[in-house]
Design a protein that fits this description.
The complex is a heterodimer of chains A (about 280) and B (about 350). Chain A has about 280 residues and is mainly alpha-helical. Chain A is about 70% helix and about 0% strand. Chain A is built from twelve helices and two strands, in the order H-H-H-H-E-E-H-H-H-H-H-H-H-H. Chain A has a two-stranded antiparallel sheet with strand order 1-2. The radius of gyration of chain A is 19 Å and the shape is globular. The termini of chain A are far apart. Chain B is mainly α and about 350 residues long. Chain B contains 16 helices and no strands. The two termini of chain B are about 25 Å apart. In chain B, about 45% of the residues are buried. Classes of the chains: A mainly alpha (about 280), B mainly alpha (about 350). At the A-B interface, helix 4, helix 10 and helix 12 of A face helix 7, helix 13 and helix 15 of B.
């Protein structure tokens, strides 16, 4: 029983991080169908920035996370306008290779500024201990789970109740119709892109203790981020959430019970799900 | 591709009376559109250039034959990728799966059964082709991101499987003890790589002949059509899925050939054959040279590999930076890669020459 609870809690923690990183990608891909493999780059930058702000500039932990996310969101806007926007109509192959090129540049940049070794990320003293929730859990991971849930709830509220969310849903549903009734989809897209990049930065920093930040971060997490997006279904909030939960908990369970198979079953499950539902679990066919 | 679209059909429409009169007067030439189409597959001077260069390199750089062999293996692999990606528009992140299957097949045959290289190569092609047929039949129903993720997922599965099945593959240590018998029982595998170079050059030539024959055949033209407008091809009655599966199978077999040659020449197979890096690098080489242009496979690998070698010797950081910038630039400004830019320059020069004349 303790084992089961431990697996579920640890799985939940990594699921929340994956969700926070991937959800922005899911929504922007739902609008533009842009195959962006470089989304993890924003998470990496967020991790480095937050570590700098927290450990060197001595800002409070929460403030460091939020500042880092805002900075990445600000950086992402010119990036989207200058680099991504001209390629929205390009072929899938070109988008893939463009984003791989972007990862390469980010890898070189991170190696140049921060060195090749993984970032030594320490969470604040107050979150160091352990809690007992049916199984012993590091306090920080419990905070991660709670934080992820809160973010999911907030996003859901934004999507369902605000004007921004309604417009966004309309654009994902039918872009041309939404434009016909006067929604500025370009502007909405930029906003969503910035929000998604900021969230990714937050996820990267928040989860640096679980998924170590290093120059090749975007490549390391590439398959998991893409699995969350494609299995969940592009353009939805709940799809990636469901996929992240599935992925996080199955992955933790597989590593615990069947370490000799590695991640084989995760990839097999992804292939099976995509064959069963090519547009993802909650995606429309 | 203006020569494929509507204008062709209009031409044929207009030429129809001329054709019927040609039946009466057999001396008449075929209409220009048809003549151009027939002329496409004729061997031209350009077809000989890569092979002259490959032969010349053998005599000019006798010390670098091992690098040359690696380049030739990549030429073959990129050629197979071009057939699937450039001609048929099958976007794949996992073509290394077939390279790896071919490599392991040839390697395991050499370790467990026989060191005869030709048996290994043929078996690898058959196995990789079969893998392409089965996986293609399953995954080619999908398109776009889903297809990308399915090919990627299959590659990741194979990587994990090769990693864990150490009893068969040697796991992370790689497959060691690959000993290959002399080629045709005559040429032994020397340290400097003479045999390996010629062997891989001949295999690349075989691969090229297969790919060239396919892309100029009516089957190849229909693949082009599928790549450009799948809906229209389906509407005019082309069995789209069957053709995609067929070309995927052939492409997989050629990728398997490349993997087998690599395993035999280096006498080693490591799990990296299933890495995303290998598949991604092949895609990069293809896009830099220009996909769907047949000769891209001869331009991308040598440029990429020589550049990679000289840059990463100095500093890997700068290598990834320049590679990344180059990729971004090529995608944003240089559509069609090196060959695309070259053909645009050629067109412009022709236009200028014509205006100068008139």
């Amino acid at each position: 029983m303790t084992v089961a609870i431990g697996i579920i809690l640890n799985g939940l923690a990594s699921a929340m991080i994956l969700y926070i990183i991937a959800v922005g990608l899911s929504v922007t891909m739902g609008i533009m169908r842009f195959i962006n493999l470089a989304h993890g780059v924003f998470a990496m930058i967020g991790g480095y920035l937050a570590a700098y702000l927290f450990q060197r500039a001595d800002l409070p932990f929460a403030l460091a996370l939020i500042l880092a996310s805002l900075m990445v969101a600000a950086i992402s806007i010119p990036l989207e306008r200058l680099l991504y926007a001209p390629l929205y109509r390009a072929s899938e192959l070109e988008q893939t290779l463009f984003s791989i090129g972007l990862i390469f540049v980010a890898v070189a940049g991170a190696r140049f500024f921060f060195g090749p070794s993984p970032l030594n990320f320490t969470v604040p003293e107050s979150l160091h201990g352990q809690l007992y929730l049916g199984a012993r859990m590091p306090t920080y991971r419990v905070v991660v789970i709670a934080g992820g849930m809160v973010i999911f709830g907030c996003l859901w509220l934004v999507m369902e109740t605000t004007n921004f969310g309604r417009k966004l849903r309309a654009v994902v549903e039918n872009r041309r119709m939404a434009e016909a009734v006067g929604i500025r989809s370009e502007r909405l897209l930029v906003g969503t892109f910035a929000l998604g990049s900021g969230l990714a930065a937050f996820g990267g920093a928040f989860g640096a203790e679980i998924l170590p930040i290093r120059p090749t971060y975007a490549f390391d997490q590439l398959n998991y981020v893409l699995i969350v997006v494609t299995v969940g279904g592009m353009g939805t909030l709940t799809g990636p959430f469901l996929a992240a939960l599935l992925l996080g908990i199955t992955d933790t369970a597989c590593k615990y019970f069947l370490p000799e198979f590695g991640a084989f079953f995760i990839f097999a499950a992804m292939v099976a799900i995509l064959l069963w539902r090519p547009m993802g679990l909650l995606g429309r066919v | 591709m203006s020569d494929l679209g509507v204008s062709d059909e209009v031409d044929r429409e207009r030429k129809r009376p001329a054709l019927s009169s040609a039946d009466v007067a057999p001396a008449d030439l075929p209409p220009p559109a048809v003549a151009a189409f027939i002329g496409r597959s004729r061997l031209r001077f350009a077809d000989a250039v890569p092979w002259v260069v490959i032969a010349a390199a053998y005599f000019m750089f006798p010390k670098d034959l091992n690098l040359g062999t690696q380049i030739l293996v990549n030429v073959l692999f990129v050629l197979s990728l071009d057939l699937a990606v450039g001609y048929a528009g099958i976007v794949t992140l996992g073509h290394g799966a077939f390279f790896g299957i071919g490599a392991y097949c040839a390697g395991i045959i050499a370790v467990r059964w026989t060191g005869e290289p030709l048996i290994g190569v043929v078996a690898a092609m058959l196995l990789a082709g079969a893998a392409g047929l089965v996986s293609g039949a399953i995954i080619l129903r999908t398109r776009g991101l889903t297809l990308l993720m399915l090919t990627f997922g299959l590659l990741l599965m194979l990587e994990e499987a090769a990693n864990r099945a150490a009893w068969l593959t040697g796991g992370t240590d790689g497959l060691s003890g690959v000993t290959i018998a002399p080629l045709l029982s005559v040429w032994s595998w020397d340290f400097l790589g003479h045999t390996g170079y010629v062997y891989s050059a001949v295999c690349a030539l075989i691969g090229f002949v297969i790919v060239r024959t396919i892309v100029f055949s009516p089957f190849g033209r229909s693949l082009r059509g599928i790549e450009e407008n799948v809906t229209r091809m389906a509407a005019i009655g082309a069995p789209v899925r069957l053709r995609l599966i067929a070309v995927y199978t052939i492409s997989a077999a050629i990728a398997g050939l490349a993997g087998a040659v690599n395993a035999q020449v280096t006498q080693f197979v490591g799990v990296h054959v299933f890495s995303f890096e290998l598949s991604g690098t092949a895609l990069i080489m293809l896009i830099l040279a220009g996909p769907g242009r047949l000769y891209g496979a001869f331009i991308g690998p040598p440029i990429y590999m020589i550049a990679a070698q000289s840059f990463s010797d100095r500093d890997p950081t700068y290598w990834t930076l320049w590679l990344g910038l180059l990729l971004i630039t090529v995608v944003m400004f240089g559509r069609g890669g090196i060959l695309g830019i070259a053909s645009r320059i050629r067109d412009r020069v022709r236009v200028m020459a014509r205006t100068a004349r008139s």
